[in-house]
Specification:
Elements lengths: L1 E6 L5 H16 L4 E6 L3 H6 L6 E4 L8 E3 L2 E2 L1 H13 L1 H14 L4 E5 L2 H10 L3 E5 L3 H5 L9 H13 L3 E5 L11 E3 L10 H8 L7 E5 L10 H5 L6 E6 L5 E3 L2 E5 L6 H7 L2 E5 L2 H9 L4 E4 L7 H8 L5 E3 L7 H8 L12 H16 L1
Parallel strand pairs: 1-2, 1-6, 2-3, 6-7, 7-8, 8-9, 10-11, 10-14, 11-13, 14-15, 15-16
Antiparallel strand pairs: 4-5, 12-13
Helix pairs in contact: 1-14, 4-5, 8-10
């Protein structure tokens, strides 16, 4: 069985959940051949424990151009979309040829229009996995940015052409084309909690808070202020740093490091960070107290916020960290909870194997 994944490179959330699904697939059938088409680095998947894959460094969509984890550049997004879409037909034809040459049985798209279009041209079944699609994300920008109109119409038609459709909680817009809805899909830790804490220099008696802003490197403008603050816990900031360094109660961890993100979540007593799919999935499935930061300009944010408001040990945090000491005090008094649902990666893997087998 040969399955190709076309994965959006907008942040790391799409890659993280597909890495979890690929791991679940491989646990069921190690002989499954996996091809990955994305601009997310191959090292991301290798660090997630996925080896022996055919990796293709291909731009599979544009998504939104980000100036920071919290700010999008819509003018530049439209410019890049128009440029990329001019080569969309030729690129999807090239990818279709590659899919046929490698005898691909099923194409999975998280949320790449290129994957579905390429599968269609190759005559191969396609599966769309999403909790939102790009046409839906672009809709609110139309009044001020009419350049999105043609792109929305094109992408909507491509998404509707998928042979199978699976949605992930928290779903932003329910689709009547969806075969099923799957609970949170999360990567799992590969190292023990104690091993990661020891590597970070955390004693058994100390509490550890992880501060993570997702797949886009973040510059903490006032980080030096925290060097002089006593939080009574250790705080590990993941961001735009050159190396792992510790200053008093503050640990700086580079955006790309030897630390596997689910291992850091496992090591933590609480997590603070941008409310994105993969961070939410990793934090909630491990039951960690969560101080989440919403993106005000992103249409997905209200869906995620509604979901997180039902989590007993989650609270909303301001992005400026003006009250970080107060937030740390609150979160450090919350307990770790048991997540009551099966990891969605397992359910997705069963569905994929079923559909791929039928296709064969």
């Amino acid at each position: 069985m040969n399955i190709a994944f076309f994965i959006s490179s907008h942040g790391y959330g799409h890659a993280a959940r597909e890495a979890a699904i690929i791991s679940a697939l491989r646990s069921r059938d190690p002989s499954i051949l996996i091809s990955i088409y994305t601009e997310t680095p191959a090292s991301f998947f290798i660090q997630s424990g996925i080896n022996d894959i055919q990796f293709h460094a291909v731009k599979t969509d544009i998504g939104l151009v980000q100036n920071s984890p919290f700010q999008s550049d819509l003018e530049e997004t439209i410019r890049q979309l128009k440029t990329w879409n001019r080569s969309f037909d030729s690129l999807s034809l090239e990818m279709a040829g590659n899919l046929k040459k490698t005898h691909t049985d099923l194409v999975i798209s998280d949320i790449s229009p290129l994957g579905i279009a390429s599968a269609q041209k190759a005559g191969i079944p396609s599966l769309l996995i999403e909790n939102f699609t790009w046409d839906w994300i672009y809709e609110p920008y139309l009044p001020d940015y009419p350049g999105f109109k043609t792109i929305i119409e094109t992408y909507r038609a491509v998404y509707n052409a998928a042979d199978f459709h699976v949605q992930l909680d928290p779903v932003c817009k329910l689709s009547n084309k969806s075969s099923l809805t799957i609970p949170l899909v999360s990567r799992i830790p590969l190292k023990s909690r104690d091993e990661t804490r020891h590597k970070l220099g955390i004693t058994p008696a100390q509490q550890l808070g992880i501060i993570s802003m997702g797949g886009i490197p973040y510059n903490y403008t006032n980080l030096s202020d925290y060097y002089r603050t006593s939080f009574n816990v250790k705080l590990a900031f993941l961001g735009n740093f050159e190396s792992v360094t510790t200053v008093k109660d503050v640990i700086q961890i580079p955006h790309v490091s030897d630390f596997y993100h689910p291992d850091l979540v496992s090591a933590a007593d609480f997590v603070i960070g941008k409310a994105g799919y993969s961070l939410i999935a990793e934090v909630i499935t491990q039951g960690k107290p969560f101080g989440y930061i919403n993106r005000s300009d992103f249409r997905e944010s209200p869906c995620l916020d509604q979901f997180l408001r039902q989590v007993p040990n989650a609270i909303e945090v301001k992005p400026e960290f003006d009250s970080l000491t107060e937030v740390v005090d609150r979160l450090s008094n919350f307990s770790t909870l048991n997540y009551p649902h099966q990891n969605g990666a397992e359910i997705a893997a069963d569905f994929i194997i079923q559909q791929a087998s039928l296709g064969q």
